[in-house]
Design brief:
DNA Binding (I), subunit A; two-stranded antiparallel sheet; mainly alpha; 4 helices; binds zinc ion; globular; 2 strands
Length: 98
């Protein structure tokens, strides 16, 4: 089995929280945001800049081990808008580090 690499730094996490300005899934701004792996760790996901988004406690608890796109569809959230924004933000945060 390949070694699992979790390389999200605290600075990257803060940058992600700032860039999203709220829950990545539902947009709620209240409360403390949690790290959610879009691809759950149980399915091979990792805590990396491309896989982690800030979410509210409600979304994090609801999504749990689900794969993100199927879960968003079931919740009637805008999956396409989310995925486009996620790529933009992850790239922007990654680019800052160079
Ligand atoms: Zn949410």
């Amino acid at each position: 089995m390949a070694k699992v690499v979790h390389d999200l730094t605290d600075a990257q996490w803060s940058a992600l929280v700032d860039a999203w300005g709220g829950c990545a899934y539902c947009g709620v701004k209240a409360g403390r945001l949690q790290k959610d792996c879009m691809l759950p760790v149980s399915r091979g996901g990792r805590y990396t800049i491309m896989n982690v988004v800030p979410t509210c406690g409600t979304c994090n608890a609801s999504k749990w081990n689900a794969e993100v796109t199927g879960w968003m569809r079931r919740r009637k959230l805008d999956e396409r808008a989310f995925l486009m924004r996620q790529v933009e933000i992850a790239k922007a945060v990654a680019a800052r580090e160079r």
